[in-house]
Write a structure and sequence with these properties.
97 residues, mainly beta, four-stranded antiparallel β-sheet, globular
């Protein structure tokens, strides 16, 4: 089983932090709210720039999205972080494999 996160705020969250040295191939994001849509950004940050994998993707209530992570993603020592940002405090569950 991969990494799991419950995201409940519109803040930017590290899914995999630089230095975690974790290999991942995809991210599954599920909107667990009963009635509200949320917009989702998933991106790689190299401490200077953001590189978006998806940006402003609307995820309806009860829907899920599976996103492939680029093979060049490198979370070893102070390199890349994989991050998520929501446009509102609509809860989502995240599983990383």
């Amino acid at each position: 089983m991969g990494l799991r996160h419950n995201i409940t705020t519109a803040l930017t969250h590290n899914l995999i932090a630089a230095g975690d040295n974790i290999t991942a191939s995809n991210v599954n994001v599920a909107n667990v709210h009963a009635s509200s849509t949320v917009k989702v950004d998933i991106f790689i940050n190299n401490s200077t720039n953001n590189y978006y994998i998806i940006k402003n993707v609307e995820l309806p209530a009860g829907a899920a999205l599976n996103v492939d992570i680029p093979k060049k993603f490198d979370s070893s020592s102070s390199k890349d972080s994989l991050r998520i940002k929501l446009d509102s405090a609509i809860p989502v569950d995240v599983i990383i494999n």
